[in-house]
Specification:
single chain; mainly alpha
């Protein structure tokens, strides 16, 4: 099936779902049925990208508010969430980093210290992780590093179809995306989960608690597995490594931005101590970046920033709140619970069921939208399993990092496209990584969470 036929099919499905929603609403069918049709319609738009993600979010707001299928409070829950301000801060900080070219300055110093192909792969992965702490947007990180990686491959004379070029590109994308799923503000699914958690249960989780639960096993595991697999699947060697002495000195603006980023990171990491949510620390950092004279991003540039991701996250959180309010999530889980004796399983197997459920959902709805559907279910699931609500919510985190197909994570898809990496090679890497992750990282994550007292 070619691209044109595929898009035509998606448009046909979307049109049919929209008409079905309209018919169900006019016929006065149960709210849960109307919500199900609306949710599938919006998730289809996000999953297939036949329209921009922000437009799908705006369409969601319009359909809910005009039809009255849910309350205004539920539909607009995303705009009342702290998570949305993390996205705002990410947009501003990402723009400041691009404006000051701090990524290029650090990159020029990094590559000059590379001694081999294997060292380059590991350095790129570590560099992506370091960037994840200060750029709270996977898409922003990928867009930032993609031209740098392309230029590096050209400087190293790596042929377009060579294993070395594939390995270098995959290492850069993997480092910038995968470990960051365990750093609270650094990837969209994390933020959507946090927002949906706040909207559904009235509380979230601190930056520090999230990091301690997830990074030691999942984040570090991804950081160790992916470069090792890349070196194994795409072996090679490099010659003519650039000289670090050619790097330009740090500018005053870059130094000021580095101070802002380090201070923001310190506030995020210590939020459990001082009580200031990560969202407000990020907002303060954005304000400082935009401040006249002392800032690092001209205020006039605010008008040029792309806030599409801001509306998308608000829409994803709102969808979760609408699903929860309608009772649809509870009804769906009751069907699952009736089909399988989940209450009779031990806690480890129950955890495995939760991870598997969220992985299937991520495969269908894509990673950014998955938490908006799964998180509102946590309340009903917790009653079935006897688990704390927070434990159920956090059991979905492994599904953020373990997936096979690039379409599930838009930043990965964009990175592969920008760097001309064949999707088949990426699927080969992701498939093997996911298999190992399911067999090794998922059980270790449960045991670590149980040791911390998070999981039963």
């Amino acid at each position: 099936m070619n691209l044109h036929m595929t898009r035509t099919l998606f448009w046909t499905l979307a049109g049919a779902l929209l008409l079905a929603f309209a018919a169900a609403h006019l016929a006065g069918l149960d709210v849960a049925i109307q919500t199900a049709l609306l949710a599938v319609f919006i998730v289809l738009l996000w999953a297939t990208a036949i329209v921009p993600e922000f437009y799908a979010a705006l369409l969601f707001f319009a359909l809910v508010l005009v039809s009255g299928v849910a309350s205004e409070t539920a539909a607009l829950a995303g705009f009342q969430s702290k998570a949305i301000w993390l996205v705002f801060a990410g947009i501003i900080l990402g723009a400041a980093i691009q404006q000051q070219e701090i990524g290029k300055a650090a990159f020029d110093r990094l590559v000059g210290r590379i001694t081999s192909y294997r060292a380059l792969i590991w350095s790129l992965a570590l560099g992506g992780l370091a960037l994840s702490f200060v750029v709270p947007s996977a898409m922003g990180r990928v867009m930032l590093i993609a031209p740098l990686i392309a230029a590096l491959c050209d400087r190293l004379a790596l042929a377009p179809a060579s294993p070395e070029r594939t390995g270098v590109c995959l290492a850069a994308i993997a480092g910038a995306v995968f470990p960051a799923f365990t750093i609270l503000p650094s990837n969209v699914p994390n933020v959507v989960m946090l927002g949906a958690m706040e909207a559904s249960y009235g509380h979230g989780i601190t930056y520090g608690d999230y990091f301690v639960l997830n990074f030691p096993v999942l984040g570090a595991g991804a950081l160790l597995l992916l470069p090792a697999l890349i070196c194994r699947l795409f072996p090679g060697r490099i010659e003519g490594v650039p000289d670090a002495s050619a790097a330009q000195p740090w500018t005053a603006g870059q130094m000021r931005l580095a101070v802002i980023l380090l201070a923001t990171l310190a506030f995020w990491a210590s939020d459990a101590l001082h009580g200031v949510p990560a969202a407000w620390s990020g907002l303060a950092a954005a304000v400082v970046c935009l401040a006249p004279r002392i800032g690092v991003l001209p205020p006039a540039m605010f008008k040029t920033l792309n806030f599409g991701s801001w509306f998308f996250v608000a829409g994803a959180i709102g969808l979760g709140a609408v699903v929860a309010e309608s009772g649809l999530g509870a009804a769906l889980w009751q069907i699952v619970a009736a089909a399988a004796p989940l209450g009779e399983l031990n806690a480890a197997l129950q955890y495995a069921v939760l991870v598997l459920t969220s992985m299937v959902l991520a495969a269908v709805a894509t990673l950014p939208a998955g938490p908006s559907v799964f998180t509102p279910l946590a309340g009903t699931i917790s009653k079935t399993l006897g688990w704390p609500v927070d434990a159920v919510v956090l059991a979905q985190v492994p599904s953020f990092l373990l997936f096979v197909f690039p379409y599930q994570a838009p930043p990965v898809l964009v990175g592969l496209t920008l760097l001309d990496v064949p999707f088949g090679r990426a699927v080969k890497l992701l498939g093997l990584y996911t298999l190992i992750g399911v067999l090794v990282l998922v059980p270790l994550h449960y045991l670590w969470g149980r040791l911390l007292g998070v999981f039963p």
